[in-house]
Amino acid sequence: MRVKQEKIIFPVESAFKAVKYTVPYFDMSFHHHPEYELVYISQGSGTRNIGASIHKYEAGDMVLIGPGLAHVWMSPQTYLKEDSEHIVQAFVVQFHENLLTSLMDTPEFNNIKVLLERSHYGVKVSAEISELIAINLEALLSLSGIDRIRELLKILDLLSHDKQQVLLNRSDYPPPLSKSDGRINAVHQFVVSCYDQQISSRDGAQMANMEHSAFCRLFKSKTQKTFTQFLNATRIDQARQLLLENQLTVTQIAYQCGFNNLGHFYKQFKKVMGMTPRAFFQDSE
Fold first, then answer.
1. Domain 4-167 homologous superfamily, CATH
2. Between the CA of residue 230 and those of 82, 92, 270, what are the distances in Å?
3. Of 10, 41, 141, 269, whose CB has the highest number of CB atoms within 10 Å?
4. Residues whose CB falls within 8 Å of the CB of residue 217, separated by 6 or more in sequence, listed in order
5. Choices 3.90.650.10, 3.40.30.10, 1.10.10.60, 3.30.559.10: CATH for 179-284
6. What angle do CA 51, 66, 199 make, to 5 degrees?
7. pLDDT at 158
8. Which pLDDT score, from 0 to 100, does residue 177 have?
């Protein structure tokens, strides 16, 4: 599965985009764009994929996404049925990284600068701050001119003071900074999309449009992991989420996450997490 690049069209009268979507279900592909994006889910539930992070979302969920970080929100199959009465509602704010460039090195914007740097890994906003910002998002939609900029800055300031925010991807997840990093980022998104299938480093090389040995060297130099190590870590990340949800057996989780051998799953889980899947589940209760 290839990650699509989305082109964001800003309103003629504004330096950034702020919209409210109310639709029966989310119908989008795994995509990325060079703008920052703040998403607040006011109604609906499902699964969101931010970079290598795969989590459930529900009403009240808020995430800040940095430039180039691929993402998608998916609705459950029940939302797609013709007789479904479900709806999803989301507030989305998108702005270009150049919007605040001249202010980023001022002391007043230090907290916001740190926030935007963290957003390259995806930032999960705390429930308390999400609730406060939801009010600002409602107000933002009705504002125009300089008042829109003021409200955006209020929102970013609130986000920057959120002490309970959580990074959605590990710190070794590389933001796309150069052509070679962009290739690695595309391979990361490929792994996140296809981790449940039987894929190999040769598939990664094809995705990066590189010769196999050169790709393996580049991937290792950029991530400090081999392709197989990253693939297994991604699978284990998803297995952790499924274990926490406690809806499937360990065997079902192993096969759903791409492991075709239960013993190999246990070995890789313990290697990454330092404990067995059952011990992890018991420790999380």
1. Jelly Rolls (2.60.120.10)
2. 39, 31, 15
3. 269
4. none
5. 1.10.10.60
6. 20
7. 97
8. 46
